[in-house]
Structures are given as C-alpha cells and as structure tokens.
Amino acid sequence: MLLYPRLVFSFFLVLSVNFPIIAQGGRIPVRAENAMVSSSHYLASEAGRDIMARGGSAVDASVTTAFVLAVTLPSAGNIGGGGFLVYQSANGESTTFNFREKAPLAATKTMYLDEEGKIKDNSNHEGILAVGVPGTVAGLYKAHQKYGKLKWADLVQPAIEIAEKGFPISPEIEGFSTWLLQNKEVYPSTARIFLKDEQTALRSGDTLVQQDLAETLKRIRDKGSDGFYKGKTAGLLTDFMKAEGGIITREDLRNYEAQELDPIKGSYRGYEIISMPPPSSGGTVLIEMLNILEGFDLSKKGHNSAESLHLLTEAMRRAYADRALFLGDPDFNEAMPLEKLTSKEYAADLRQSIEPHRASVSDSANFSEAHLIYESPQTTHFSIVDPEGNAVSLTYTLEQSYGSKIVVEGAGFLLNNEMGDFNPIPGHTDTRGLIGTEPNQIEPEKRMLSSMSPTIVAKEGRPVMIIGSPGGRTIINTVLQVIVNVIDYNLNIAEAIESPRIHHQWLPDVTRFEDWGFSPDTKRIYQEMGHEIELRSVQGQAMGIYIDKESGMIFGAADSRSYDGKAAGY
Ligand code: GLY
C-alpha cells in the first residue's frame, strides 16, 4: 500500500504541559476538551464520538466504533473475527477482554496436512478450514455488560444505518473488488457484495450497501451476543459451513465465551504500561523491550539516530526471541514465565549483553524451540477516551486482509482465516519460518498466539496515552516506537505516530526500515554496526490519543498510513 498522506488541521493555543503539544514541523493532533476516538475510518470515529456526546462511556463508544468498522472497513473491522480490548478507568481500575478466535472442536493438530505431512494447498491460510470460531460479538457484549452506560441496541444501530444506506468506498476496497474480478475461485457470496456486477469492480467513491450484514446486525442489536451465536445467524453460518466443507458447528458457537483477564502491567520512566496478556504476545514483549530501553539514555542519542535505532533493535531482538520461545494460549500453556519476562531484573541482565555500537547476532541455537508463525499485516486498532477520562484500547482482526475472503451466504459478513496463526506441522521447524513446536499447536478450543498490542499508558492511575496498531508481528514494535517517541523524544502524539519506524523480530536477523523515512547516512552508520537492512513501504497504522494531565486537553491522531483514518473529538 502506498503512503497516503492526509493532513488533519486543528487550531489551538499553547497550554502548560509535560510534553510539547505544538507540532515541531510534523503533524498537528486533533484537539478536544471532552472525548476522542481515533480509528481507521472516519465514519467509525464519528459514530463513537457521537455516542459519547449522548452520554455513552468509552466502552459504549468502542461497541459502536467496532460495529461501524465491521461495515466500513471490511478488510479488518469485523464481526467474523476476534481481538482484544484493554480498559483503564480514570480512577485506575484496569482490565482486559479476550475475544480471540478459537480452534473448532473438530480441529486436530494435523488437519492441514496431506499424506506426506505437507500443508495441503495453503489450507491453514486459505479456504473454509482456515476459519476460527469468531469472538468479536461475544467480546464486545461482555465488555458492554460490565462497563456500558447506554442501551446495547442504541450502540449497534449506527452500524445498521450505514450498512443499509451505504457509504463511499476507499481505493482500498476498490483494490479488493478488482482482485475479486481477476480471481476465478471467489465465493459467489463474496462477489455478490464486493462486485458491482459479474463484470464490473467497485470503484473508489462508489456507494457500498450491505443489506444482509444490516439484517445480521439487527439480530445482534435485538438479541445481543445470542443474535450471533444462536438463532438465525448461527444457522446461516453453520449451514454454510456444512455446504462448503467447513467444521464450525452450532456447538462451537454455543460454547464460545469471551474472557475477562487481568492486564499485563509494567512501567517505563515513571509511566504505567497496561497491555494485553497472552494469548497476545503484545503486552509481554512490549514491557520487556521498554524495561531493556529504560537503562539507556535514549533522548541523548537523538530521535531515530543510528545509535538509538541500534538500541531499539537490540531490545527487539531479545524480546522477540522470548516471544518465540515461551508464549502461547495460557489456557493450554500453564507455565509461561510472564513475571520473569516483564521484570526489571531480567531486563538488566539482557542489557548487559548489548554492546553500544555493535549488533549482536540472533542466536538461532534454540531455533527448534521457536515458533515463527506468519501473521498478516491486516488488522485494525482504535483508541478511545470518554469525558470521565476512562480509556479503551482495542485491536481486532480477520487475520489477513478481508480474512478468508469468504462471506457467509445470507449473513453478509466476512469470516476470518485466523487458524493460520497456529503452528501447522507438529514437530516440523525450518529456516523459512515454518514452526512446529508445542505451545502454539492446534487443539480444539485453543486460541492461536497473537501480536495485537492494545495498550494504555497511565500516570498515577490516570490514562495519558492510548495506542495500538495493525501489522502482524510488527505491531509490538510500532507501539513501542510511538511510546518512546512521546516519552523520550517529547514528540506530540501525531508526530510520534507519523515518524518512520523499524522492525526486528529476532529471526530472520534483519531490520526492516520504512524506506521513505531514514537518511542514507543513518542507514550507513547503522549497517556499519553489523545490522542488515531490508526496506519496506509502510509499517502499521497506529491510532492514538494523548491526554495532557495538567490541562485535561485531549489530543488525537490517526496514522496517515491509513486511507480513511480520523481522530474525532468534541
Ligand atoms: N493475526 C494477527 C495477530 O493476531 O497478531
């Protein structure tokens, strides 16, 4: 995807703050006094903001924002996928909701393999067997039951109206529509929605109406979670599964439960970090990296200087190795050393092995113990703060862009292909990244490991920054760099999000740079330290909010790496 710069202007006065809020040659955040939503689609941000203007809580707004994204951002916004919600109230109460998809009851460790033990036709990523049991509706419903102020039905309604009335599509949906036209093995149920007719793709600016999706949303509006997991929607989904050779049954849907989990917590230079525990690797790895970096004077090294990039890389290398070695679904992996991985003492030990001007080598001796699964860059994140100062950080996904690309006939929503996040061949690990280790092998009702990192940064119990991003395994590093950009380099939230980013994930031992963002000199000095570089176009689409503690003013920014992102406040 090309960088798609879109400037958002707002006018404001200089206020007394901890961090500068005036753009220093970069972008200017959107400013609001009461509440803010920053998401990947302007209609979703505006709908979430309007819910709060009507008295809704941050969780209410997140329900609305998520359902609107399921209509307006079909590449990742969803009801057929799963994700994580991190919540922190203005008075320091924090929790998380885990609505990651699950393997169906009939899933087996070897379900994607042929007689020779090889993966059949990429079937863990493509086709009906790649679909995990969706969690999004259960997760939103559970969060609303605990923290909602407005009626559930009123929160789902805006999405229904947009699905029925339609909205102008972005070049990104045009791209999907064109792809459908060119591909022979497209599901007719998908083509019916995302093509104009059998011969014509949708064009950017065309209006997309989704009547079947509107009807499904009405059942969810009227019956809550049961409107998805039981009754007509469940019937449409399981009949479709049966007809297409899928394995998700009524029992799978009935059994699905979202979980409320304690967040994983750390600290960084006096700020509290509240993030997602396993089955996401995000919070654990983020806190481990921040702990390592806390021992270095990053601000003195200079923003995105070769020296600071070197230190970031070395922290990434070490924490991602631990991700690969230790993390999986906690319901199936009891002995994960989370306390150790997120401790300051462990970080101090790891720091000892970092040379100031020399790259270390990713130790692949433990490679057979690693699980380097492929994760897609397509996911979406939104950040919310309500007028009371309560915050929600929510990332959810269909896995790849448009998930399995399979729309449920008659129900109008896309299914995920999240089963591809499991290790597909038990015991088989190779240098191309196919991993077969135990913690993330397929088991019925197990959740696949994720990198989604919805995070809240707080000071004295009050949220000050809400941040997250899509981007598969790059997510954790994107979130890391936005946090460091604000805390160490005093960038405002928009500048912190816009800044170019890097990604290292232990193996392969190479650092990806956004190719537009770093000077040749910086890259040369960095390479002279022994690092290998690969260029990429963009990394992530961070959506963030910063709340100035002294003035209470709220600053939001939507990453211009997204087509339709917007921070909307009032
Ligand atoms: N499917 C991407 C993730 O969960 O990290």
UniProtKB/TrEMBL annotation:
Biological-process GO terms, alphabetical: glutathione biosynthetic process; glutathione catabolic process
EC number: 2.3.2.2, 3.4.19.13
Superkingdom field: Bacteria
InterPro entries noted in UniProt: GGT_bact, GGT_CS, GGT_lsub, GGT_peptidase, GGT_ssub_C, Ntn_hydrolases_N
Pathway named in the protein's UniProt entry: Sulfur metabolism; glutathione metabolism
Residues annotated as catalytic: T379
Matches recorded under Pfam families: G_glu_transpept
UniProt keywords, alphabetically: Acyltransferase, Glutathione biosynthesis, Hydrolase, Transferase, Zymogen
Catalytic activity field: glutathione + H2O = L-cysteinylglycine + L-glutamate; an N-terminal (5-L-glutamyl)-[peptide] + an alpha-amino acid = 5-L-glutamyl amino acid + an N-terminal L-alpha-aminoacyl-[peptide]; an S-substituted glutathione + H2O = an S-substituted L-cysteinylglycine + L-glutamate
Annotated binding of L-glutamate, by residue: R100, D421, S450, S451, G472
Record-level Gene Ontology MF annotations: glutathione hydrolase activity; leukotriene C4 gamma-glutamyl transferase activity
PTM characteristics: Cleaved by autocatalysis into a large and a small subunit.
SUPFAM superfamilies: N-terminal nucleophile aminohydrolases (Ntn hydrolases)
Family: Belongs to the gamma-glutamyltransferase family.
Subunit structure: This enzyme consists of two polypeptide chains, which are synthesized in precursor form from a single polypeptide.
Name used for this protein in its record: Glutathione hydrolase proenzyme
Organism: Christiangramia crocea
